Amino acid sequence: MDKKLELVDLRKQFNAKVVPVKNVSLSVGSGEFLTLLGPSGCGKSTILRLIAGLEQPTSGQVLINGKDVSRLSPGDRNIAMVFQSYALYPHMTVRENIASGLKLRKTPSGEIQTRIQDVTDFLGLHDLMDRKPGQLSGGQRQRVAVARTLVRRPDVFLLDEPLSNLDALLREHVRAELKQLFGTQNTPVVYVTHDQTEAMTLSTRVAVLNNGYLQQLDAPERIYMEPANRFVAGFIGSPQMNFLQVPCESRRAIVGNHPIPLPRGANMPTEITLGIRPEHVHLAQSDHEPALDGQVFLIENLGMHNLVSVRIQGQGEPITVRAIVGIEHRLAIDSTVRLAFPPESIHWFDVSTGDRIQTASDSTSVVSPSVTPTSVTS
Amino acid sequence: MTTTVPESQPRSAHQHGVRRIVLPVAVVLTVLFCLAPILWQLLTSFKTDAAIAEIPNVYFPRPDQLTLDQYQKLFERRPFFNYIFNSFLVSLASTVLALGIGAPAAYALARLKLQGERIMLAAVLIVTLFPPILLFLGLLDIVRYFNLGNNYLSLIIPYTAINLPLTILVMRSFFQQLPKDLEDAARVDGYSTPRMLLDIVLPMTIPALATTGILTFISAWNEFIFALTFITREDLKTVPVAGAQLGGASPFEIPFGPIAAATVLGTIPLVLLVLFFQRRIVQGLTSGAVKG
């Protein structure tokens, strides 16, 4: 059976000023892994709690398998959730923790036994079954919390920053494990995180949120390649994208002293925001290549690369551009470099709305329909 | 760093030496200071009348100065088991009531966003500021009006009322630090609210219930004014009142021995209670529920 979760025009309002979720619509199908990504306070956790039924929406609907569950209690929705703190019952053994949800649903005990057996085989929890959560390490508690959701065979999995309490090494390991694990479940997964690496690595689709608005809902690579607006462009990618607000003259943006042709989608603005990721800026190979002259004023070593901050003099204020440069270019502070912006890697944004302006290299529709009415500045 | 280590080592060793002497001495002195009255009562309760009256004081009685007579006299003259039973019944009932009413109230104050929550808390706090001694005359009128004099209820109800604010305040702060995720997880698992409170919240609450319960029990056990005023029938008296009213064989005799024995017997149940629940109090039952 195909499982499906849909949010229709979901809104949560605590009072006139605090509106953590503003009319969000999206759907997650079987086997899809959707990540809600955004800075803290963007409403991602509230959306998850609305899906779970731990909060009641002000308006809008939550549909599971086509059925409106907005008014049902969390226990009647057949969802399972992993909490950031794991939330294992401290006075119960691991086995009781895993079985509690099934027992409450009056699952026959034979069925409970086999399901627990399956899950413990799957997660390798055999030796821990009779321990209390207090006797487990952080990673083990996390596995038990995951086991408690898997055993339920729910219609939707909800995960609320399940990795944020693990140390960095373990987090990378568990992240890979989670990806494999939920990949086999053929059930919609909604995952909340503020960590873009987790979002990019785990998801089949990412929903970027800010201020309660859905900014973009797309596959991870599209989010990276064709950010729908300036917020998404700045939030995804590390180090952050360079944004230059530059004047335009006769369909050309003037960067420093160097004109760059505007994309076709732009209709004669006087100013435009140019975005380019540091990893796409490179040192000009030859004198013929159009490039900008600038002075290095900061070099940060990232191991494989240097992150170089360059000050470019032009008309008016000097502009700062950061570029990822291989360590083989032995750059020094105050040395002069020539930076080239490959035209296919340039992103253009409207100065006032922050929305993306389409370029020739974009795929036909950048902004998914549900996103169009919302933008950063609205 | 490396240069400072050799310098600081002898100093810390010296400090360590001073600490090794001063700390145990301080501990012994503090314990002696706190326990001296109790030890004196304990000693008195085991001495013969002659040894009690002897001057200078007998701190280390000879074997022939030791006796169990004082306890025997106590039980011969008065139904002391009866007093202990009365105290126990009244204290236990008011403790159970205080916890039974106070804990749910505290949970509601901690978890629900109630209108006027601050006013309620302020009201609860103000009650604790009232000295009970100012209340007992008014309460006596109430007790008379409801015809509750010489009834256990005349003690159980005021003791519960007086201990409720403390119970509510302590339990509320406990519930506030109880991770809310656990309750959310229980609801997602399918627990109904009553079952969640019973199966998930209550087991984690036991240490806090034990702590506040003991405080309530002790305060009810030791209460004197109400017990003296509202109860006049001999067979309903509680230990503190009965102990204070112990008379000698003649009006001119103060029965130090039986009074000491009564004090010891009145304290033992409390000591046992605290010792029994101590492990539960110290044990942090929530460990392992969430990270940390």
TrEMBL record, chain A:
InterPro entries: AAA+_ATPase, ABC_transporter-like_ATP-bd, ABC_transporter-like_CS, ABC_transpr_MalK-like, ABC_transpr_MalK/UgpC-like, Mo/tungstate-bd_C_term_dom, NA-bd_OB-fold, P-loop_NTPase. Residues 5-236 form the ABC transporter domain. GO terms for cellular component: ATP-binding cassette (ABC) transporter complex, substrate-binding subunit-containing. Keywords: ATP-binding, Cell membrane, Membrane, Nucleotide-binding, Translocase, Transport. Transmembrane segments: none annotated. One of its GO terms (biological process) is carbohydrate transport. Gene3D superfamilies: 2.40.50.100, Nucleic acid-binding proteins (2.40.50.140), P-loop containing nucleotide triphosphate hydrolases (3.40.50.300). GO terms for molecular function: ABC-type transporter activity; ATP binding; ATP hydrolysis activity. This is ATP-binding cassette domain-containing protein. It comes from Myxacorys almedinensis A.
TrEMBL record, chain B:
This is ABC transporter permease subunit. It is found in: Cell membrane. The keyword GTP-binding does not apply. It comes from Myxacorys almedinensis A. Residues 84-277 form the ABC transmembrane type-1 domain. Keywords: Cell membrane, Membrane, Transmembrane, Transmembrane helix, Transport. It comes from the Bacteria. GO terms for biological process: transmembrane transport. It is a multi-pass membrane protein. Belongs to the binding-protein-dependent transport system permease family. Its main location: membrane. GO terms for cellular component: plasma membrane. The chain crosses the membrane at residues 21-40, 83-107, 119-140, 152-175, 196-221, 256-277.
